[in-house]
Amino acid sequence: MGNKRPKVGFCGMYMRLLPITKYSKIAGHIASNYFRKEAIYPFYASYKITNKCNMRCKFCNVWMEKTPVLPTEEVFNVLDNLGNSSITLLSLEGGEPLRRDDLGEILRYAATKPFYLFFTTNGLLLDKAPMEEYGKYIDYLHISIDEGHKNLDMLERLEEFQVYAPVCVQTVVTHEELGALEDKVRKVYKANARTVIMPAVHLDRTKNFYPNTDDFRKEISRLKKTYKNTITTPYGYLDRINMPHGCSTSSIIIDCDGVIFYPCRILGQKTCDLTKTSLMEYLKSEEAARYRDQMRICERRCGWYQYYATNSFTSVKEFLSAIKPYYDDIFANGKKECSSSQATT
């Protein structure tokens, strides 16, 4: 059950090519969302395969959850379901996914499915994990690095980690740390890595560390221009976080029991059990339509990155803009050299 997908190389790294039939289906789902002006079909999913974590971040509440974790075979059922859906990017997350003893089996199985596989970790257990093996199945290694995770020293090791897979640093910004952001971005830039920057959303049972959204938008916009092709946070997201109804269901979050939060995790409603029910069939149901209506009139304006950023999938122009930092490297393959001291521009 190895990884059979062909790859395109850049900078010594490789991105897998999905089956051509998958790309044609993606185009159809994007067109459907666009013409109906509604994110019926999601393209991004985060699957929290465990709520166990070795950290207690002040802005996070996942580690507080007591939801039962699925056994390996049922995780496979969820991955089968996602493989037969519109999902194009899957992020395996936690908690801390490196806490699962069967992680190698899960990654190996996930790599046989027609979606890109992101792996999100706080990085503190990477040195103890068989990353040479895991890296065979990962398209992007997302490492959460910020003051909350108490692991800023890992910014000095990004080039080392890119031996396993292309690295994207996931940085959560609180109102206390917006001014310290540029130093992090500069280090990511020099390592020729990527970073997705998001505000610390105010979750239940946590203190409010949410930054001023106008200040956040201005700073990220400035840094995107200064450090080109480094920050993957799209401009569309920066515009929408100040809008009353800027989020959408173009992404989903799957809890560690295989049940999705729908329309979103902030509202706390868990609906479709992906171990038993087809995601695509559920999305066409009247119940799912009612929940999408609920999201459209929600006035909470929580700023949750997934729901605001992946709205880009309802616009072809925004979609191309959002993925540009990833694909520039591939399209420029053979035209530029990787440097250990300066990022590609």
* Number of distinct helices: 12
The number of distinct structural domains comes to 1
Overall mean pLDDT stands at: 87
Structural class: alpha/beta
Which value, in Å, is the CA radius of gyration?
Answer: 19 Å
> Widest sheet: strand order?
8-7-6-5-4-3-9-10-11
Q: Which CATH first-tier class would you pick?
A: Alpha Beta
CATH topology name, in short, is TIM Barrel
C-alpha termini separation: 38 Å
Could you give the topology of this structure?
Layout: E1 7-10, E2 13-16, H1 20-36, E3 44-48, H2 72-83, E4 89-93, H3 103-110, E5 116-121, H4 131-134, E6 140-144, H5 158-161, E7 167-173, H6 181-190, E8 194-199, H7 213-226, H8 235-240, E9 251-254, E10 259-261, E11 270-273, H9 279-283, H10 286-296, H11 305-309, H12 316-331
Parallel strand pairs: 3-4, 3-9, 4-5, 5-6, 6-7, 7-8
Antiparallel strand pairs: 1-2, 9-10, 10-11
Helix pairs in contact: 2-3
